[in-house]
Design a protein that fits this description.
This protein is mostly helical and about 230 residues long. The chain contains ten helices and no strands. The protein has one domain (about 1-230): Orthogonal Bundle (MetI-like fold).
């Protein structure tokens, strides 16, 4: 018990003193996750809206696939990206394996289905509510897409925040494609795994506290936005 208390106090001191290694890991984690979520949102929002508004052969299958991909195992995504970016893979010439770019790609592939599936539901609900009004104004599904995305912006922000929470907590995929290389691809989740395996509880606890605070902040922001939308 005393050892844990000492490790916890040491972790707090690392955070308070803004330990250089700790700050570097946190900064890289935020950089990778924010970039991945931005790319995922750029793809997932319009794809989700298109699935909600347009009717075409195979749409139902695509909706099922998108929903199924929300639960895609991270290690499988990591393996797929690894095979694509390895020297023998089709994208090996790019030299992206074991770089932050590879981790961004892996996180993007994990988050995009989540954003697309949730966006489809949000936009579909809005279309069902406003379809007659929009059609009376001469706006079909194509012209209504941007309007509905804007109208549902607060709910969609919570969707993007959920994607960020998923990305920032990811460990399996980024471990495979990033390699957990010190000062290059070591992020919070992989660093925690490494430090625990080494028995270094202080830095692991410090990073764990930061990750917990980050997760709580994301959930709080999502809850506040949800309440704002409900009260509006």
């Amino acid at each position: 018990m005393a050892d844990f208390a000492d490790a916890f106090m040491a972790a707090i001191m690392l955070i308070v003193d803004l330990d250089e290694d700790l700050a570097e890991i946190v900064a890289l984690s935020l950089k990778v996750s924010l970039a991945a979520v931005a790319l995922a949102a750029a793809v997932g929002l319009p794809v989700g809206a298109a699935l909600a508004l347009f009717r075409f052969p195979g749409r139902a299958v695509l909706v099922v696939i998108t929903n199924a991909l929300m639960g895609l195992p991270p290690v499988v995504v990591g393996l797929i990206v690894y095979l694509l970016l390895s020297r023998a893979g089709p994208l090996g010439v790019l030299g992206l394996l074991f770089t932050p770019a590879a981790m961004i790609i892996a996180q993007m592939l994990l988050v995009t289905p989540i954003i697309a599936a949730l966006t489809r539901q949000v936009v579909e609900d809005l279309w069902n509510e406003y379809e007659e009004q929009l059609r009376s104004l001469g706006a079909g599904p194509g012209r209504a897409m941007s309007t509905l995305l804007w109208d549902g912006r607060f709910t969609l922000i919570t969707v993007v925040l959920a994607g960020f929470g998923r990305a920032s907590a990811e460990v399996g995929a980024v471990m495979i494609v990033g390699g957990n290389i010190d000062h290059l691809t070591r992020v919070m989740t992989t660093a925690i795994t490494l430090e625990v395996s080494r028995g270094n509880l202080a830095p692991a606890l410090g990073l764990g506290i930061i990750l917990l605070v980050l997760s709580a902040g994301i959930n709080a922001a999502a809850s506040i936005l949800k309440m704002t939308v409900q009260e509006a």
